[in-house]
Amino acid sequence: MSKIIVLMGAPGAGKGTQARLLQERRGLPQISTGDMFRALLKTQTPLAEELRPILATGALVPDDLTIRIVRERTGQPDCLGGYILDGFPRTTAQAEMLEKIAVEQGNEIGAILVDVPFEILEKRMTGRRSCPVCGEIYNVYFKPPKMDNVCDLHPDVQLNHRADDNAETSKVRLETYEQQTQPLLDYYNATERLHRVDGTRDVEPIYNDIEKIVTGGR
Ligand code: AP5
Question: Distance between CA atoms of 124 and 49, rounded to whole angstroms?
Fold first, then answer.
């Protein structure tokens, strides 16, 4: 049976960093709802205008739209051998729908919490920069690029600073996480599908723990 890996954690916990490594090293597709919404923002469509204020304030995108894009994306052929969900599910309705999707696809679900205390998260969010070409994630405090504000892999490209990575929106994102997403940890824990990794360490030891869980220690 192939696996759906649900990477969980507060905003800035390192889900995207770890999901990208799993994709690169284990060939598992990374499905990030946040990345998909940010890509939609770049389109000149009414949907982009609908999404813009939601992402700008740190609230959640409505469940029906979020579920629709996840269902569509996970139905693509590259997901047949399993995939990583980064930032989904975030609400009870999304978690319930994921159970249905898993049954339809013949997949089982495993959740991994990248556990980082709230006091560390602010610097991770406000210091984050990313390459608009390859998506490489940097941090001015913890993982600065070799040259100021320029991607190591694309020297002609200036790094992006996400619009929602300011102090005010980060605070709302953390509150939204606490109220709507944290309860899902109890749900996965109660069904014995939750693994926790200490996300305060360096990226590699965190990755090693996650990889062991994903491969069943192989
Ligand atoms: P999304 O893009 O999912 O944002 P998020 O959950 O807030 O998560 P982040 O991307 O901020 O953090 P991350 O955990 O991936 O951390 P990263 O690896 O980048 O969602 C954005 C918005 O989209 C939401 O607010 C909502 O509006 C909407 N949305 C998305 N999904 C939705 C859903 N399912 N339903 C409804 N709405 C949805 O790392 C952060 C920084 O820390 C980086 O700079 C990195 O270099 C650094 N770092 C990472 N690991 C370490 C480490 N071990 N040590 C030191 N620094 C580290």
Answer: 28
